[in-house]
Amino acid sequence: MAEEYILLRHRDIPHLDQLDVYLANGGFGAFRKAVTTMQPLDVLNEIKNSGLRGRGGAGFPTGLKWSFIPNNIWPHYVVANADESEPGTFKDREILEGNPFQFLEGLMIASYAVQANLSYVYLRGEFRQIGAGLEERIAQLEKAGLLGDNLFGNQYSLRLHTHLGAGAYICGEESAMLESLEGKLGLPRLRPPFPAVHGLFGKPTVINNVETLANVPPIMEKGAFWYHCLGTERSPGVKIFCLSGCVNKPGNYELPLGATYRELIFNYGGGIPGGRKIKGILSAGASSSIIPADDMALDCPMDYESVPAQLGAQLGSASVIILDDRVNLAWLVKKTAHFFKHESCGKCTPCREGTYWMMHLADRIVAGQAKASDIDLLNTVAHQVQNKCLCPLGEFAIMSVMSGVEKFRPDFEELIK
Amino acid sequence: MNGLQSKYSAEIQQILAKYPPNQRASAVMPLLYLAQRQSGYIDRQSVQDIAEIIGLSTTDIDALIGFYTLYHDQPAGRYRLQVCTDLPCALRGAEDFLHNLCANLGVKVGETTPDGLFTIEEVTCLAGCHRAPLFQLQGDGEIAYHENQTIDTALALVNEMRRRAAEKEAGNG
């Protein structure tokens, strides 16, 4: 565990979700410093130099993303992605509930860096209570003079609003999120143009994940160098790992990037219940390849480079789902196939039809009604979805199918009569 | 001024103020929540009212109701009790939990209890995987999480809600 929490500070400081407590612990000092003493470009460069990368899954460098916002098209917007919906992911929810002001301050600093005067928090509809809590806090910040017009006597003005989604996984995809925020169906956009140029309401827009933004105030406070010394050289900083599935102590663990799966699962997560054997790991929620849990996997550092290079999987949002030796992987593929069939928005034919057929084939296999050739047919359908869709949902949907059939084929074969 | 406007006039103004004046369509999602707050579903007249307020067609609005799973165009039980059975929850017994809950309440998934209070539904990830089994309770315009559930805690909640509903009924009568 990091010696002192950087993101989950509410675990150390009681009532950090109250404004007076947050202020008493240095809250909004970073935002004040940015607005009163720094040029927007200096703020952007500080984040760039920290090496912070997007925590929503893609791992794109945050400062670089901000720098794509052009200065000849106005207004600019920042949208915070609080649509946390990946099965196995529950980190943003803890930040929003426990340490909401740090997230809001990060959003405010991001807004200043790109000179947005109006920014939104897009929350999944199920987070209705969290959204109401944020609205209250935003009102408190306006009252305290931390949001509104001419902040700190400066020219800069900023307003924040929340917007609730309504139960659609696809809206976590940034271009679908923008469509939804514009009052449309959450269907991903064809890119280019990218949101940095043509985003919300057709204007330049930065979209950042909640956890990413929660990293921003401590970086501004303690400096890019301090942050860059945490984690690994190419994956600096800390990450919240969501540990779930067959493990004794599921939960969120804030660790430096580069900690190993073994440390997470056995040191922090208390190992596998009943002393059973670990069979597999999903490294990035339901969108993940299934990794056989051998020593190489357990000793792999959890960072943006090592997981793809050593295991052929992704760090993603770091939603680590543990499978023990009782789990049949064909059953798992059936679960994920149902999820993606339900969540495919239907815009691209390969994803819409592919998820439908993968679901039916997986159902047939698990029900014991499949022929041996259905296993290869399932794999073939998955390959036909690959690289053919506008957004990553189709790519996510085939990960468990392809890796499951390739690496755990006996689990499928034992269900064929 | 239409029915929805006269009922929630101040709230509708607040909602519209969140978005730039030339982007009224953005208000459609919060307005749909407003329309289903009281009865738990969106009736035809409300679709018409929202269409008028923000200048979309009723077809556009129906498409949104169909696309987003938290909007309902049919009445159900007063509370939708929605159990997550996605992969991480299933690994912690959520499927058995849902099965037992249904058996105890005498309904199948998707059905409503005879007293009209609870519709039991199976849903996808609620971001509470570490505290499974869990469900959310939708109703009265609210969504509340109930985590680390056992069949006993869930039935105790159901009975408590039934008692409160009966009390309210008696109070009104």
Which bin fits the share of residues in helices of chain B? 40-55%
- CATH topology of the largest domain in chain B: the name is Glutaredoxin
Q: In which order are the strands of the major sheet of chain B placed?
A: 2-1-3-4
Indicate the multimeric state. Answer: heterodimer
Q: Any low-confidence stretches of chain A, pLDDT <50, length ≥5?
A: none
Structural class of chain A: alpha/beta
The CATH architecture of the largest domain in chain A can be named as: 3-Layer(aba) Sandwich
Give the CATH H-level superfamily of the largest domain in chain A: NADH-ubiquinone oxidoreductase 51kDa subunit
Number of spatially distinct domains of chain B = 2
CATH topology of the largest domain in chain A: Rossmann fold
- N- and C-termini, Cα separation of chain A: 48 Å
Arithmetic mean pLDDT of chain A: 96
What is the element layout, followed by pairings?
The complex is a heterodimer of chains A (417) and B (173).
Chain A: H1 19-24, H2 29-37, H3 40-50, H4 62-67, E1 77-82, H5 91-98, H6 100-113, E2 118-123, H7 128-143, E3 159-164, H8 174-181, E4 205-209, H9 210-222, H10 224-228, E5 238-245, E6 251-256, H11 261-268, E7 278-282, E8 290-292, H12 295-298, H13 306-311, E9 319-324, H14 329-343, H15 349-366, H16 373-385, H17 393-407, H18 409-413
Parallel strand pairs in A: 1-2, 1-4, 2-3, 5-9
Antiparallel strand pairs in A: 5-6, 7-8, 7-9
Chain B: H1 3-7, H2 9-17, H3 28-36, H4 44-54, H5 58-67, E1 79-84, H6 87-90, H7 94-105, E2 118-123, E3 135-139, E4 142-146, H8 151-172
Parallel strand pairs in B: 1-2
Antiparallel strand pairs in B: 1-3, 3-4
Helix pairs in contact in B: 3-4
